[in-house]
């Protein structure tokens, strides 16, 4: 079992990684809660809800399930969960547990942030991707105009990461999670990047996954402790997310996985960076690794450039109607840059060409 | 012009009270915002929006209007305002201005708290009642099960209180606001209470109003600085609100004003307190003052006791399914007490009888 303590402006909290810890929740509760509501989705619930319930001995335990998928991160499901929480009799001294991937974590976390102006919540991520969203206290739902546009900075009271739950993930989800690990490695250093690109996602060994996961969490933890509210360095974690979010939103949440969209967005950021900074970045290595591991690098995803640029403008990083992007001077050295609409249009075209040519 | 500085865990902010300051907003902005969205309601907008706009010289100024009344504090209007903010191109560096009473302040404040995970906002209260809601950073919307059940603690960057705007208030609104001033006086001391009960709401002199308002704000400010997140003494501000919220919710938001409901709730708290603590409280003075000033103290509002108790249970102060109420040992000495369902039922009956008998 590994423990990483995160300092936040509201309170410190611990990330606990280990095998089988999903059924030991009682052990990690810091106080006596009047009631506990576990929020999960249909798929994760079927696999792990029983285990989690078995590890809780209090009387007032409730659980509710949402439809799996990004579509559930909407205002209607948010309101429905508030209703469920009220109907279960939750009060200010209650706990919400988010058992699932990033959708469940972001949604249940935002419910916790706003239920009676905020109650405690615990993240129990069950995907690789959620190593990213479960750490750092960013919770949100989507707006029809874009991803995560309505939300809060509201740290969990703990993150309980049972790596055993990752063994059941379909390859598509493994791919999605590794896109964020690659992103984190890109803003860390060359060695970390080389390590991550060693992963064979079609034959992933649990011990290899645990190592990559821990490296990602440590990088994320270091950054969010330095800049909780995303005023500075935390923005770097958005590498690949400007186009990534636009692609997800344009093609409909749930069609592309988040990580698949971020993968394309990351390549796009490298493409622009190489041109802007006149430098060589590991575009080719990453492209090759993505290709081998079946990332959907289809140019048709990019065909409606105007719509994508409009989507990018709705991004939270937009300042004064200018699109801000995270770019890389070198591996481990991210920067923020404004990229004009015209330049973006050109880069989307040259990027599409490059995707075909390679 | 008077200034009161409030310290909060997120940042300090200033309450500025004065005449005509609604048209000097630029002067009070602490930084250069990329855009400003003024949220108001149809009534307030007609009276004061032009003045506020005249005091702003930036290019990117937008405004939007909601329907007046508590019904607008719902999830649909909340989402609609997020949409408006996105369509106006607001970004993380934008400002939201809440121009209006408590509904506009709570709603626009909660939009600001959650738009792209939080942007700055300024409260410009235009009612007496809003002296209470605009100070302290509690923002929220209603759930169909009860008032303010979805929200945040999110302090404004400033409160600009133009007392000139209060001269246009209908008596019903003056009454509503004074109920909170009476509540604040009751938890302050006998002198403050005697002062407030000197007010003749049908012939209110502006200078008298300003004095009472400032006393209320100072009490509120002192309490929220001591206990921002309502873990302790801030709960005392809920005197009269347990039954008050239940009455509002049961009879439909907007039928009774908030203050009218709180007035009845305050009397009810005094009624219980006298019995529980075997003490004499200024029940009769307050009742007489409310009667003279036309507060709706109708027993028919209380007839469905079971439904009211159910509503009271949905209150945020409920702990372990027990209703917690703020009671008074003496004027200036509030306490929190659990009151059982059975006792509440009896108290509601004896209170109804007392309302008729006096």
UniProtKB/TrEMBL annotation, chains A, B:
Cellular component aspect of the GO annotation: cytoplasm
Family under the similarity heading: Belongs to the sugar phosphate cyclases superfamily. Dehydroquinate synthase family.
BP GO terms, sorted: amino acid biosynthetic process; aromatic amino acid family biosynthetic process; chorismate biosynthetic process
NCBIfam families recorded: aroB
Keyword Zinc in record: yes
Record's cofactor remark: Binds 1 divalent metal cation per subunit. Can use either Co(2+) or Zn(2+).
Keywords for this protein: Amino-acid biosynthesis, Aromatic amino acid biosynthesis, Cobalt, Cytoplasm, Lyase, Metal-binding, NAD, Nucleotide-binding, Zinc
Annotated gene: aroB
Cofactor: Zn(2+); NAD(+); Co(2+)
Top-rank taxon, per record: Bacteria
Ranges for domain 3-dehydroquinate synthase C-terminal: 177-318
UniProt domain 3-dehydroquinate synthase N-terminal: residue ranges: 65-175
Cell compartments where the protein resides: Cytoplasm
Name this polypeptide is given: 3-dehydroquinate synthase
HAMAP family: DHQ_synthase
EC number: 4.2.3.4
Known function: Catalyzes the conversion of 3-deoxy-D-arabino-heptulosonate 7-phosphate (DAHP) to dehydroquinate (DHQ).
Transmembrane residue ranges: none
Predominant localisation class: cytoplasm
Organism: Oceanobacillus jordanicus
GO MF annotation, one: 3-dehydroquinate synthase activity
Sites where the protein binds NAD(+): 102-106, 126-127, 138, 147, 165-168
């Amino acid at each position: 079992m590994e423990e990483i303590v995160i300092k936040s402006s509201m309170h410190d909290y611990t990330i606990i990684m280990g095998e089988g810890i999903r059924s030991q929740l009682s052990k990690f509760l810091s106080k006596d809660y009047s009631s506990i509501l576990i929020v999960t989705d249909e798929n994760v619930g079927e696999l792990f809800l029983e285990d989690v319930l078995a590890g809780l001995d209090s009387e007032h335990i409730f659980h509710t399930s949402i439809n799996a998928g990004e579509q559930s991160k909407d205002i209607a499901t948010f309101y429905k969960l508030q209703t469920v929480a009220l109907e279960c009799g939750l009060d200010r001294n209650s706990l919400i547990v988010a058992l699932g991937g990033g959708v469940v974590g972001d949604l249940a976390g935002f419910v916790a942030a706003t239920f009676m102006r905020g109650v405690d919540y615990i993240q129990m991520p069950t995907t690789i991707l959620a190593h990213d969203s479960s750490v750092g206290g960013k919770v949100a739902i989507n707006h029809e105009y874009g991803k995560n546009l309505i939300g809060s900075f509201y740290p969990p009271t703990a993150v309980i990461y049972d790596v055993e739950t990752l063994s059941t993930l379909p390859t598509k989800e493994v791919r999605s999670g590794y896109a964020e690990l690659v992103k984190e490695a890109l803003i860390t250093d060359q060695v970390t990047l080389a390590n991550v690109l060693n992963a064979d996602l079609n034959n992933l060994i649990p011990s290899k996954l645990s190592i990559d996961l821990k490296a990602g969490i440590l990088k994320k933890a270091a950054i969010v402790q330095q800049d909780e509210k995303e005023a500075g360095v935390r923005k770097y974690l958005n590498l690949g997310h400007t186009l990534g979010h636009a692609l997800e939103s344009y093609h409909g949440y749930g069609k592309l996985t988040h990580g698949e969209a971020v993968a394309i967005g990351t390549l796009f950021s490298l493409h622009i960076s190489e041109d802007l900074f006149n430098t060589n970045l590991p575009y080719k290595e990453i492209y090759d690794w993505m290709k081998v591991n079946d990332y959907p690098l289809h140019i048709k995803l990019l065909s409606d450039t105007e719509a994508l640029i409009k989507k990018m403008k709705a991004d939270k990083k937009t300042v004064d109607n200018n699109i801000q992007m995270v770019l890389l001077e070198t591996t481990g050295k991210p920067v923020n840059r404004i990229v004009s609409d015209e330049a973006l249009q050109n880069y989307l075209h040259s990027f599409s060409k490059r995707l075909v040519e390679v």
